[in-house]
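This follows on from our talk about sequence and fold. Can you supply me with one protein entry, sequence and fold together? Could you add the entry underneath, on a fresh line?
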Amino acid sequence: GAAIQKFVTATKAPKVSIRFVGTELGVKPAPAVAYFSARGPTQMSPAILKPDIVAPGVDILAAWVPNKEIMEIGKQKLYAKYMLVSGTSMASPHIAGVVALLRSAHPDWSPAAIRSAIMTTAYVKDNANNVILSMPNRSPGTPLDYGSGHVSPNQATDPGLVYDATADDYVNFLCGLRYSSQQIAAVTGRRNTSCAAGANLDLNYPSFMVILNHTTSATRTFKRVLTNVAGSAAKYSVSVTAPAGMKVTVTPSALSFGGKGSKQGFSVTVQVSQVKRAGDDYNYIGNHGFLTWNEVGGKHAVRSPIVSAFAQ
């Protein structure tokens, strides 16, 4: 800016040309989590890891309404059919497109199954083979930044296993959040809602979250059910990567599935002992690891983040 100002004031008839240098390809590192991307944990339901997933959302070429100006220069309003737009409003359509792809490929999948496929096949390494960075500090990201990782549409079409859930499971979850019958009815669109079946905060979700609420240690046990969506029987063995201060026990450590639609359950106990870093008032991460079900003699790897975080 200073150089331009100096040129304008020192030149009798200043002229300037602007040249578009084209799209840069192969920029490293990429992707990265934008500074304005919302981080977890969520205050509404901290027992569920948020975010779920990240998707392209920075400088996305998007259609723009023709009757809304993009800017004003003096008294002149400028209009355009397209804009470079950033934000959740750009990442969400990418995920919606992936959902449409999966719905087309697997019309029998539930919304929960589709979300599971997207989450368990996401990647957490950038194109430099390092953990996806969190901007603007360029620090290694965590699941509180990127959730399960960056969406990978092709992989999501063939996840092997999914964590499925029904509408009734979500009603029980809302009961666990102590929603009233009127509130549950407003959310679900059901006239007759009841929590008689029992409240359950342990939703069959593709991630595991332990909240440290005014404490430095906690133990939580999760129960999960996996459904085989592949075309044949398969066996899976579990692998866990856990940092210091986190102990993870999975029972059983191996699962055998029949054909498509076969289900198997397992439990996960997570023990956490973590001290919050002094002066770190905006980073709520305690520590994190991953639980992966690996197909024996096959290609599928069903990965879920395990996260401990300090309550906001």
